[in-house]
Amino acid sequence: MNKLLIGTNPSPFSDSPSVNVVIGLVALLVGAVSCHFADAARYTWLAYATATLGVLAVGLIHARLWRHDPWRKH
């Protein structure tokens, strides 16, 4: 198995579970505030489409960062 995939997180922050929870909570709050101000109820399909594209983009970015180890953790 690739040594890079064991115990690393594609983030400039530490690999601790507590830090991951805090980062996830902050991301969730940013998304909720953005959804509130974007009037997602009025533009339902557009909101779902842009959210899906955003999740795809973040997933691809993290996959690339995880592979190339930009933070030099190993």
Whole-Å distance between the termini?
Answer: 15 Å
Global geometry: elongated
How many helical stretches?
Answer: 2
User: If you average the pLDDT, what whole number results?
Assistant: 77
Kindly state the percentage of residues in helix: 55-70%
- The number of distinct structural domains comes to 1
- Helix and strand content put the structural class at mainly alpha
Strand runs, count? 0
Low-confidence residue ranges? none
Percent of residues in beta strands: under 5%
Please outline the major beta sheet: none
Taking Cα atoms only, what radius of gyration do you get, to the nearest Å? Answer: 16 Å
SSE string, helices as H and strands as E: HH
Characteristics:
74 residues, mainly alpha, 2 helices, 0% strand
What does it look like?
By secondary structure, the chain is mainly α. It has one domain (15-68). The protein is 62% helix and 0% strand. The longest helix has 25 residues, at 44-68. The radius of gyration is 16 Å and the shape is elongated.
